[in-house]
Structure formats: structure tokens, C-alpha cells
Amino acid sequence: MIVKVQMFGAFRVLGDQIEVKVREGGSVSDLRDSMLQYAQNADLSDLLAVSKFASQSSVLGEDAICSSGEVLAILPPVSGG
Amino acid sequence: MNTHVEVREFDSNPLDAAEALSFVDAAGNGAGSLFVGVVRNLNQGRKVRAVSYDVFAPLAEQGFAEICSEAQQKWGDDLRLYVAHAKGRLQVGDISIVLAAGSPHRAEAFAACRYLIEEIKTRSPIWKQEHYMDGDSDWVKGHALCGHD
């Protein structure tokens, strides 16, 4: 299945949004694994490891199940204020 | 409503400290505290000319509301709170965040305002990219978010 991921912060170098192939019924942990190649290509592997994924309303745990066509967001460490 | 939370496009409408203080004012309030965050011209020895703020707005605004609710649980439901964070490219001296807390007494107003900024800095999905005088740009290393594991 395809999961859309909105890019924020340093991940913006990959574009505003990317589409990532994840196994059916896959979790956020699977999504993270699937994103590794994108991250490696942009030298963002270390940042991926410390980033979280979120829906439009909450930060997700690693076991949260992804849905086909869902739009999630990747949240690297934050620096607001 | 006794809280106002907002992510604001800086280009169209810069943040306004007077607006924040006006919102938290009330007849029963004897205190209003204000925090204003401003883009400074130096960070870790590098001369900064501008900063771009990237924001995941829906989650940020929801988080601001949750933090305000926590402050009201700690220091009183009668607290009036204002939170506005800029989004977009700001120059040195521009305001990036405005917070205000209004309450009957100063202790609660000071404490709530301090709580808001400390929690927002570590919990809100906001990212700062600094643009330096030498033409380089870099995303500021931040605080890793806590998940729901």
C-alpha cells in the first residue's frame, strides 16, 4: 500500500510530500523502515531514527497501523519558540 | 473562550504583543504577563540574517490548546491565555512568538507564561531554519518529540 508522508524541517529537502510503499497492514515501524532509503539518499538516516510520525491530530507510536492512502507527517526534533 | 491559540503566516500579519495583552485583560485580572520571542542576530557564533519557521499547523494549534489547558489546571480556570507563533521567513528583530497570561494575581500569570514557553519549545511541531550572513542555511538541532509508545 501507499502511505503519503508530509515533510517538515530538514526533511523538506525531499519535497513537501512523498509517497512510501509499505506492506499491507504495516505499522509506523514498517513505514520508518520503508523511508530509510529516502533518508539515506539525503544523508538523513540519523535524523530519521530520532523523528516521530504523526496523523493530523496526534503523534503516533511505533505500533500504530497505517492505512492505504493515509496522509501522515514526519516530525524531526523540534525547535520552535 | 478564555484562550486564543494561533499559527500565523508572518508575511500577511506579523505578531502583535499589544493584541496578546488586550486578549488576556479582564475586569477581574490584576496581572498580565507577556513573553515575546524575537529573532536574534547571532547563534552559536554564527551571524544570522533571517530565520524560517516551518510549522505543522493543525497539530501545533491542537498542542497549544492542550498546553493552555494544562496551565489552567495548574494555576486556575480563570487564567486567560494567548499563544501565537509565526510561520514563514522572519528577519532579525521580528517577533517569532507571543505569549500572554492574565490572572487575578501576578504569581499565576508569571508561572503560566513561563510554563507555556517551556512546553511549546519542547513539544510543538515547529522547526527553525537559520539563514546566515555568509549565505549558508541550516536547520537548528532540536528536541526529539515523545511518542505514544
Word description of this protein:
The complex is a heterodimer of chains A (81) and B (149). Chain A starts with a strand and ends in a 6-residue tail after the last strand. Chain A is built from two helices and five strands, in the order ββααβββ. In chain A, 23% of the residues lie in helices and 25% in strands. Chain A has one domain (2-75): Beta-grasp domain (Ubiquitin-like (UB roll), Roll), CATH 3.10.20. Chain A has 81 residues and is an alpha+beta fold. Chain A has a five-stranded mixed sheet, with helices on one face. By secondary structure, chain B is α+β, with helices and mostly antiparallel strands. Chain B has one domain: Aldehyde Oxidoreductase, domain 3 (Alpha-Beta Complex), CATH 3.90.1170. In chain B, strands 1, 2, 3, 4, 5, 6, 7 and 8 form an eight-stranded mixed sheet that branches. In chain B, helix 2 (57-75) runs antiparallel to helix 3 (106-123). Chain B is globular. The model of chain B has no long low-confidence stretch (mean pLDDT 96). The A-B interface holds A 6, 8-10, 12, 50-52, 54, 56-64, 73, 75-81 and B 37, 53-56, 58-60, 62, 85, 96-97, 117, 120-129, 139-149.
Question: Key terms for this structure?
Answer:
heterodimer, A: about 80 residues, alpha+beta, Ubiquitin-like (UB roll), 5-stranded mixed beta sheet, 5 strands, B: about 150 residues, Aldehyde Oxidoreductase, domain 3, 8-stranded mixed beta sheet, 8 strands, about 30% helix, about 40% strand
Please summarize the sheet with the most strands of chain A.
Answer: 5 strands, mixed
Instruction: Write down the secondary-structure element order of chain B.
Output: EHEEEHEEHEE
The biggest sheet of chain B amounts to:
8 strands, mixed
Shape assignment of chain B? globular
The total count of strands of chain B amounts to: 8
Radius of gyration of chain B: 16 Å
CATH class of chain A: Alpha Beta
Please give the CATH architecture of chain A.
Roll
Give average pLDDT of chain B, whole number: 96
| Helix and strand run of chain A | EEHHEEE
CATH class of chain B: Alpha Beta
Which oligomerization state do the chains in this entry correspond to?
A: heterodimer
Strands in their spatial order, largest beta sheet of chain A: 2-1-5-3-4
Estimate percent helicity of chain B: 25-40%
